[in-house]
Amino acid sequence: MYDRHVTVTTVALGERIQRCRRYAVEHGWVVAGEWVDRGDHALTRPRPQWEALTYAMRQAAARPVCLIDTWDRISRERDASAMLRMAVHQAGGYCVTTAGEEDVDVGYGQASAAAPLALRGQR
């Protein structure tokens, strides 16, 4: 399970984690761990806990799933989200939200994973 949280108060974070735990139980999934980037790490890259998550995914015996409450827990920015999810795909996994949305198709984020048009060709 992954989340990111910027603020000091943790009520909302706790609620999101609980939804993820319930979803995992309902689907019979074994939770290998909980990774949460906090404070500034939740907004910038690299994200230490995201990197730790993808490292753990590369070690998994079965196809791993990154369970998140909603897509914006990865990033609210489309390009940033695509890049982070691509790291999950490269680690052999895919992402699922507690609403049942998933990006199991490896090509889901590839078009967005390239440099934004405004940056292409710049050095």
Structural class: alpha/beta
Query: Mind describing the biggest β-sheet?
Result: 2 strands, parallel
Distance between the termini: 36 Å
Portion in beta strands: 5-15%
> Which percent range fits the helix content?
25-40%
Radius of gyration: 14 Å
- Oligomeric composition of the shown chains: single chain
Low-confidence stretches: 109-123
Characterize the overall form: globular
Please state the average pLDDT score: 89
* Total helical segments: 4
SSE run: EHEHEHEH
Number of strands: 4
Strand order of the largest sheet: 1-2
Write structural notes for this entry.
It is a single chain. This protein is α/β, with parallel strands linked by helices. It is built from four helices and four strands; from the N terminus they run E-H-E-H-E-H-E-H. It has helices at residues 11-26, 48-59, 78-90, 110-113, and strands at residues 2-5, 35-38, 65-68, 94-97. The strands form two sheets. It has a two-stranded parallel ribbon. Helix 2 (48-59) runs parallel beside helix 3. The chain is globular and about 35 Å long. The N and C termini lie far apart (36 Å). The model is unreliable at 109-123 (pLDDT under 50).
